[in-house]
Write a structure and sequence with these properties.
Elements (H helix, E strand, L loop, with lengths): L2 H15 L29 H12 L6 E6 L3 H6 L3 E8 L9 E2 L13 E7 L8 H10 L1 E12 L18 H12 L4 E6 L2 H9 L8 H4 L9 E7 L6
Parallel strand pairs: 1-2, 1-4, 2-3, 4-5
Antiparallel strand pairs: 5-7, 6-7
Helix pairs in contact: 4-5
């Protein structure tokens, strides 16, 4: 083989090994800081909240009877259906909306079989013992009661509680976590988000700043958040 041929082969192998070395320039236009450090809430509707609202609205008929919600009765009051009793759970004793002060991962002070619906939004990422929290959530539901959960798949750390922000979730992890406690046949798991919403959320954009067509596209790879509907079996109690 000639030296010319050997030189050509080496040159080709170098291109294959480093195909993008000379094709791209540094992206100097990437901003140094997000548009908002409050998930876009100071610019409009946070992108994750747009999807959380959609999820809970689609299950508004589940929000009935005796309802427990985390931190405040936002959804109980706004979309509840024939709510007879409204309770609010929080770990913070200074929360004036809270009617039950408890840590969900050891909420022994909440009685068994109490609630028809438990709305648990954007909370489990702050609880280290996830299985215990989910078991307590199931325990305090009445047989046939429904747990409505939302959790982040991608999100900045909470600036107010960075030392207590433990987890991010996937569709598969939620299937296992909730399936182990409620039973696989008693849960429905769905995701929301795409590359644009994930990028926008991390950048601090609001939902109103993204075109509806792009906002509502769904990706199986770029997942922004996960929603779960879990039913306590009326047979197992």
């Amino acid at each position: 083989m000639s030296l010319v041929s050997i030189h050509g082969i080496k040159k080709h192998l170098k291109k294959v090994a480093h195909p993008a070395v000379k094709r791209f320039k540094p992206a100097h236009d990437i901003p140094d800081r997000p548009l908002s450090t409050r998930w876009g809430s100071d610019r409009g509707t946070p992108i994750d909240r747009h999807f959380i609202d959609q999820f809970l609205q689609s299950h508004h008929k589940d929000i009935r009877g005796s309802v427990l919600e985390i931190k405040n009765p936002r959804y109980t009051n706004s979309i509840g259906n024939d709510v007879l009793v409204s309770e609010v759970l929080d770990i913070n004793p200074d929360n004036k909306d809270a009617t039950i002060i408890a840590d969900l991962q050891k909420a022994d002070n909440v009685q068994d079989n109490t609630f028809d619906c438990f709305i648990l939004t954007e909370t489990l990422q702050f609880i280290y013992d996830l299985k215990s929290a989910i078991e307590h959530a199931r325990r305090i539901l009445k047989p046939g009661g429904i747990l409505l959960v939302t959790v982040p798949a991608i999100s900045p750390l909470d600036p107010d509680f960075p030392d207590h922000d433990f987890w991010r979730f996937t569709q598969n992890s939620c299937r296992v976590l909730f399936g182990d406690v409620f039973g696989e046949d008693n849960i429905a798991v769905e995701t929301y988000g795409n590359f644009v919403t994930c990028s926008g959320f991390l950048s601090g954009m609001a939902a109103e700043e993204i075109a509806p067509r792009r906002l509502n596209d769904k990706s199986d790879i770029y997942v922004q958040g996960v929603c779960v509907r879990a039913v306590k079996s009326p047979i197992l109690g």
